[in-house]
Amino acid sequence: MKKIFALALLASLFLASCSSNDNDNGPAANTLSFENTEITVNENAGTVTFPVRLTGNVEGGFTVNFETRDGTATQPGDYTRNTGTLTFNGNNGERQNIVVNINEDTFREDTEDFVVALSGISTNLIDIDPATATGLILDDIDLSGNLLSSGSSANDILTNSNFDRLLVQIGYVNGFRPTQQTIANFSTYLSERTFKQDIEINFLELDSPDEETLTLQEIADLESENRTAFNNGTNTMAIYIYFADSPSDGDDLDRGLVTLGAVYRNTSMVIFEETIRTLSSRSGIPLTDVETATLNHEFGHLFGLVDLGTVPVNDHEDILRDADGNPILDENGNEQGNNHCNVDGCLMQAQLTFQAPAALRAFMASTKEEIVSACSLSGIAMIRLLEDRAARGLSTVPDLDAECILDLQNNGGR
Ligand SMILES: [Zn+2]
Ligand SMILES: [Zn+2]
């Protein structure tokens, strides 16, 4: 089937009281932690910032010391040694930054690393975990591995052939972080479908861009400003997921034509967290369920589903249809695949694909020429389906069906 670039799906999926929380990635109560255990920086960036975050309240506040330590990067040539003391007022969610100056030199080098460490905390009420973070200095960041089309790195995500580590960076606008249960569910999903043994999910708290709506181009521009995790040599495959505090451009909330999430590159996704929260609170469907369904669905496209980099073993790709359910043909009169699954009940199912070509065209028009989405997950029908599943006693977020799983297995996944 011919591939299309942008399409909108009225989600279908889900519902669920999500299960166990054993592998929770969030910090425990009363913890001081580096928000990122690894930050990549170009050597001409000037500085690199390591945010340290307090989870929990500590009455009276406290101080903690920090210092930089050489790795393969050494001071003063590669970076400027920095030591000092951070003072926290003791409020939950409080952040203090450690800024390290990076020095540019003219020699061709490989990636070099140094460590920032915390010690000497003035209270015994909290633990430090993790107490160190690594700064990776690249001679020139090669972004090419993270600028490919959606789904094209499916094999690298599913297997250990080229990268044995998966680093998922979640850049969220302050106040719009996904729930710990959602991240636990997502982590389980990654472990179940890929052969990666080493999976890290880290968090990057961001200021609001103060936009009423966001186009995909604006989201891609924000990624350029904020993302700090990139593919690293033959070790790390890095993914960036942005949790936005404003809706997608072109949304019509009153008519329910809203976008929950989108993929736009091989390692880039956006989740419209503010929209998800609005729909969740209006419908009564738990936030974690809507988040998990959206996150897992969109990541299914990074796995290459359906026919977006992972070739279907059997033909189960749905086709693009108009409001009357008739196929929308391309200029040669052929049916067009819509990169979703035609199996009822599958996480990637397209049974509720947008039946409103005008809205679809509006969405496609909102995507600028250089940046296009392979999936825009849309809201109201997803909520209706969740409610329907709840009414029928189905209480879990749908998994991939047998056909989609077979496709992943055929491309090196589980
Ligand atoms: Zn989709
Ligand atoms: Zn499927």
String of helices and strands:
EEEEEEEEEEHEHEHEEEHHEEHEHH
* Shape descriptor: globular
Number of strands: 18
CATH topology of the largest domain: Collagenase (Catalytic Domain)
The largest sheet has its strands arranged as 1-18-14-15-13-11-12
Per CATH, which architecture of the largest domain? 3-Layer(aba) Sandwich
CATH homologous superfamily placement of the largest domain: Collagenase (Catalytic Domain)
How many distinct folded domains? 2
Helix/strand/pairing category: alpha/beta
Provide the list of bound ligands, each named once. zinc ion
Q: Kindly, what is the distance between the CA atoms of the first and last residues, rounded to a whole number of angstroms?
A: 25 Å
Q: Tell me the number of helical segments per DSSP (H or I, 4 or more residues long).
A: 8
What proportion of the residues is helical, as a percent range? 10-25%
C-alpha Rg, in Å?
22 Å
Biggest sheet statistics: 7 strands, mixed
Q: In percent terms, what proportion of residues is strand?
A: 25-35%
Low-confidence stretches: 1-26, 354-362
